[in-house]
Write a structure and sequence with these properties.
heterodimer, A: mainly beta, seven-stranded mixed beta sheet, four-stranded antiparallel beta sheet, B: mainly beta, five-stranded mixed beta sheet, 9 strands, 0% helix, globular
Chain lengths: 114, 109
């Protein structure tokens, strides 16, 4: 099946620990994105990458880090510097990062801090 | 990106058409109108998009006013599975999505 996968579906973290969320796509898309969603709110952009080995900060990048070593993978690390990490995290990809290319979303990972 | 305004919630009877409005009075000439929906605890699902002309696909129709200041998403025969939050987004050439609060559509039997 072609699509975007995120794992795990639920993730628990102790305070002070870093945790990495996985996002993989086999759509041959150049652009990938990470969003955060809090209860009852819309999505907010954390980081995005338009090509391999390049990425840009979004609106709420503080406390997060990413890498884009492979076209199909865009992992997000939630660091201990993120003060309020409990949220629903969504990954998306698009054919290209410029022009109006439709973004397609994965199923999301729900992160809970214990 | 242009800011969009949507009603926070709407109800629709099952089998009837659901008409979801969106205002985007500050939209610029190169911004597309995109619609996504999000069923509880799932990733957003792309529905449809358009620039000037009305668009239709297997999921919905999109009606954009001639001045492009507003649009309406039409689900022609709503089912219970269409209950979701619907987001209207104006997208520029940088392809950034700015999500507002959306419209929570409740389809009732």
């Amino acid at each position: 099946d072609g699509g975007i996968t995120q794992s795990p579906k639920y993730l628990f973290r102790k305070e002070g620990q870093n945790v990495t969320l996985s996002c993989e796509q086999n759509l041959n898309h150049d652009a990938m994105y990470w969003y955060r969603q809090d209860p009852g709110q819309g999505l907010r952009l954390i980081y995005y990458s338009q090509i391999v080995n390049d990425f840009q900060k979004g609106d709420i990048a503080e406390g997060y880090s990413v890498s884009r070593e492979k076209k199909e993978s865009f992992p997000l690390t939630v660091t201990s510097a993120q003060k309020n990490p409990t949220a629903f995290y969504l990954c998306a990809s698009a054919l290209a990062g410029v022009y109006q290319e439709t973004q397609y979303f994965g199923p999301g990972t729900r992160l809970l801090v214990l | 990106d242009a800011k969009t305004t949507q009603p926070p919630s709407m109800d629709c009877a099952e089998g009837r058409a659901a008409n979801l409005p969106c205002n985007h009075s500050t939209i610029s000439g190169n911004e597309y109108v995109y619609w996504y929906r999000q069923i509880h605890s799932q990733g957003p699902q792309y529905i449809i998009h358009g620039l000037k002309n009305n668009e239709t696909n297997e999921m919905a129709s999109l009606i954009i006013t001639e001045d492009r200041k507003s649009s309406t998403l039409i689900l022609p025969h709503a089912t219970l599975r269409d209950t979701a939050v619907y987001y209207c987004i104006a997208v520029n050439a940088g392809n950034m999505l700015t999500f507002g609060g959306g419209t929570r559509l409740m389809v009732k039997p």
